[in-house]
């Protein structure tokens, strides 16, 4: 093999094919995907309920939530944790958490 044949990949040129292969592998760069209207949330809609906000709350990162949706989500998670603790046999008061009582244990 000649000397030029051994250095065939040592060029400083980043070809179109290499760029396409790298962007497809990494996930970064321009994506050639067309999103439907259902995939894009309106700017004034809650991130949890996807409905327009009447009592909006904005996080420091810029996410918009409905106050009522946040409270419903927190209550749902609290009840779900209590249910999981009962299933695991830990009991509600064993871990110092009881969703029915608000005072400290």
UniProtKB/TrEMBL annotation:
PROSITE patterns: U_BOX. Residues 39-105 form the U-box domain. It comes from the Eukaryota. SUPFAM superfamilies: RING/U-box. Keywords: Nucleus. Transmembrane segments: none annotated. GO terms for biological process: protein ubiquitination. This is Nitric oxide synthase-interacting protein. It comes from Puma concolor (Mountain lion). The gene is NOSIP.
């Amino acid at each position: 093999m000649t000397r030029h044949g051994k250095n065939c990949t040592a060029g400083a040129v980043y070809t179109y094919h290499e760029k396409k292969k790298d962007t497809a592998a990494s996930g970064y760069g321009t994506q050639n995907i067309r999103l439907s209207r259902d995939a894009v949330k309106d700017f004034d809609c809650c991130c949890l309920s996807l409905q327009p906000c009447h009592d909006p709350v904005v996080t420091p990162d810029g996410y918009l939530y409905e106050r009522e949706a946040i409270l419903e989500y927190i209550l749902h998670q609290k009840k779900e944790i209590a249910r999981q603790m009962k299933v695991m046999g830990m009991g509600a008061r064993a871990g110092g958490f009881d969703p029915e009582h608000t005072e400290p244990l």
